[in-house]
Hints:
By secondary structure, this protein is an alpha+beta fold. It is 36% helix and 21% strand.
Amino acid sequence: MLARLLQLKGADVKVYEGDLNKDVRLQGATLDLHEHSGLKALRESKLLSKFKESYRAGADKMRVADSNTVIYYDQHAEHDSRDFGHAYFRPEIDRGPLRDILLESLQAESVVWNSHLLSIEREHSKWKLLFSNGTSALADIVIGADGAHSKIRPFVTPVRAFYTGITMLEGSVCNSAATTPNVHAMLKGGKIFAFGNSNSFITSSKGDGGLLFYIGFRASEGWLYECGLDFNNRADVAAWFRREFPEWCEVWYELFDNAETAFVPRPVYCMPPDQTWKPLPDLTLIGDAAHLMPPYAGEGVNMAMLDALELSDCLCSNEFKSIGSAIAAYEIKMRKRASAAAKLSLDNTNWMHSARAIEKMLSLFEYLKSVTVQ
Length: 374
């Protein structure tokens, strides 16, 4: 997104991407984009019409259930007139199609694939980027968009993310209509947020006929190393779920029994909401590298896309006397809004893994309905 926006403003941009090519890895769950962040960036990048061609209408509709699949709330049963331009319209798109839209919008040879970054170092007035394939590159300005385990971030700040106490285990299913018919029927092409015994179970449909699911639970920070599970062994993980989560009924078992790919453990981390650092004249961060936060508010991708928009505006503005002052202005604004988003995400993480999760979720939907009516 940042490369697209900068190219529209006439900048010379290269994207150094660690993946071997655009098809090398599976893309994860769907993303809901928000009017004043993700959708705003798409609008400014002149890609909103492409997004409208690819998003999945109805995929944003949610059902709230308990561990026994009792449905407490069903958005499919409600009339919803919200559409693009509404503050609470949050259309869903699969990560793959969104990534394709962005890649196809860039000038030829903008992306240098198979460029897994090892480190950066000063070389006179430029930055030298060192890659694991033995190549290197020089840049006037480096923008770290390299995620939660950023190699760029330590050059900007020593502040590290902290563990929230929650770990998620991710699994995926292909052809869910045939392999997991009960959960597929519950989904109705949307998503399920289920809660029980202070655990969360989020399931999302995908446009290719599959689904992704995540169970969230409290665990030690080193659980993935201590648990003894073979995450490539479906039967091993399925037995663990039956043993550790006995309150969840057998409908959920079909997800574990039919998972197609290796399970992925994801300890949930967050950057301190009050983090700050001294700006550098030619180096900055966007996305998770700047402000990693839990996924329980859907803010991560939206904050990242807004980062791209605001940083591109600052870098290409005549308002600032230098690149360094433009970066400083961007970072002040970015940290302020990211702090608010992180606090919301942390709050959601806590109550979604509490005994009152369903009650809190229902009250949230009641509030949103009242705002929409007004």
